[in-house]
From TrEMBL:
Top-level taxon of origin: Eukaryota
Similarity annotation: Belongs to the iron/ascorbate-dependent oxidoreductase family.
GO molecular function, one term: L-ascorbic acid binding
Protein name: Fe2OG dioxygenase domain-containing protein
This protein's UniProt keywords: Iron, Metal-binding, Oxidoreductase, Vitamin C
Domain Fe2OG dioxygenase: 197-298
Family annotation (InterPro entries): DIOX_N (IPR026992), IPNS-like_FE2OG_OXY (IPR044861), IPNS-like_sf (IPR027443), Oxoglu/Fe-dep_dioxygenase_dom (IPR005123), Plant_2OG-oxidoreductases (IPR050295)
Amino acid sequence: MAPTILQQAGDHLASAGANKAPYTYTDPLSEVPTLSGVDVSADGTTPIIDMEALLGPHRSEIIKQIGLACEKNGFFAVKNHGIPEMKINNMLDTAREFFHLPDEERLKFRSTDPNSVIRLVTGFQDKTRNIFVSRQSLKFHSHPVEEYKSQWPSNPPSFRENVGEYSASVREVEVAILEAISESLGLERDYIDKILKGHYVSINYYPACQESELDVTYGVRTHTDPTIITILMQDDVPGLQVINDDKWKNVNPLPNAVVVHVGDILQALSNYRYKSLLHQAIVNCEKERVSIASYCYPSDDAMIGPAKKLVGKDHPAIYKDFTYREFYESMWRVKCSTAKRLDLFKARAD
Ligand code: OGA
Ligand code: NI
């Protein structure tokens, strides 16, 4: 069955028996989701980038395609990325196993401290808006793998090995894509690599429709990611939606491809040429869904304001110079879930 944008939670009582984590959290974000007048187009418009070609003799052509996709769509799919299928399947299996563990095992990782190395975020009810956000996610640092591995779950026993292998492979894709993105902006190939530091993973678990007394169930509400880019790997259950041309579009999973999208930091660094992608996830009534988001972020002192080369008479700086630390600290203060949190760093107040 095709996923629906709004799920009347009362119509679909809990079927995924293992997922009873309590929904006690209050909404940490203040944005109202953009639900009215939603017009979801079918998929079919996802730009597809061939990574093998990027590393071959037609590199400059593929870089143009990447630049165009970042500018016009804010996202693209990458095929032939080189992450072995086995590592992807192991990662997805491990993710499912983790979220099928009994509550007490998973809830050990629950934390409201965004600075903790690892934390489990459960679904929550936003009673003011009558919305239940059903996503459960395990979020943790993962680069370099050896530095963080010992703090990851040891249950299921495959967790550390499978997640470590997947993360290391994704890192390679990340670096190659960031090099191409730098070049697409006319910057030195290593412009972004030079400021790149860590890698943060969110294992997202969307239970098949769960019971809630609230009207609407969401997977994850409309947001942008506070990253340079995000690399999202989805299982075969659709759920991701993005805003393109002022319309919501489904980005259905393509076999063996990952989705790359522009985050807030790239929006600032590119002087607003590449816009941070607004996206959300919806729930599926029949099937649980798993996705693995890999967010990459710069070092604390990195300047993430517009690259000097991208600022000139015809292109005034949209943002001031600011560091990632300043952005990160403000992010928890302003409690905004979209790239509007960058407005604090605008060069001129509008
Ligand atoms: C995220 C996210 C979407 C999805 O983890 O930031 O937007 O489809 N995930 O799971
Ligand atoms: Ni996201």
